[in-house]
Amino acid sequence: MRVLVIGAGKMVGAILAGLPSEDISDWGILSKTGTSAKDLARKHGLQFVSQASEFPDPEWILLGCKPQQLKEIKIHDLPVMSLLAAISEKTQKEILKVSHLVRVMPNLPVKHRSGVILLSSSSKQHLKMPEELFSKLGLTKIMDEKELEELTLLTGSGPALFYEFAKTLAESFRSLSESEREVMVKAVLQGSAASLNETSLQSMIDAVTSKGGVTIAVLEEWRRSGLSDVLKKGVAGGIKRTEELKAPLLQS
User: Fold this and answer.
1) What's the average pLDDT block by block, 10 residues per block, for the chain (252 residues)?
2) CATH class of residue range 156-245
3) Residues forming a β-bridge with 61
4) What is the full DSSP assignment across 147-214?
5) Which CATH superfamily is domain 3-143 in?
6) In 3-state terms, what secondary structure has residue 229?
7) Which of 8, 64, 146, 227 is the most exposed place for a label (fewest CB within 10 A)?
8) What is the pTM of this model?
């Protein structure tokens, strides 16, 4: 599969790092100046090009540029896998003048093949290839665009939210040094992640707690203090900020 990559940001780098080398052996990466693109090409064996004509007959475009650069992109009417957040499929297709576009919202753990990747497209027949490709990088889910817009906040921002929780948890104790507590909380987080299974999260909570015990005392205090409301307010703030960012992106 010949794929021309446009853009060389962190997410593109994570995707290239996670995919098997044989899957990207016929890929190219386009950049007019592109130190980062040249580095990625060298690292992963891609063909670096400064203009699209230097990479003939691509079958797909993987679009990973900044949203502000969208109007500068000039491509033939090829199917596009777009990593751009906040801009709708319809708007991207109109700006790029393409007939088929699949929105792909991965998160950085795709680098370790432990990512979560959301896919959405009105061109249902074009979802098969992206789904097969990205399923190699983690849990891949096809959904409506409205669902993708909301859940990108969970999947994309989720790692930072869990890290913030872990950091705050480490700061809640005083024994040992800060760095030693961080090492310990990371180990607890890794062990907890390794224990995940098909059981519901509530069942897993129940397995660790006992009536009248220490763990349930902590959880009950958090619930009384409104932890659920704090988390929901944070998510609402993220959704609000996403909407605020859309207008200037389209006007630039």
Assistant:
1) 95 97 97 88 96 94 91 93 94 96 97 97 97 98 96 94 96 96 96 88 93 96 96 93 76 58
2) mainly alpha
3) 4, 80
4) HHHHHHHHHHHHHHHHHHHHHHHHHT--SS-HHHHHHHHHHHHHHHHHT--SS-HHHHHHHH--TTSH
5) NAD(P)-binding Rossmann-like Domain (3.40.50.720)
6) helix
7) 146
8) 0.91
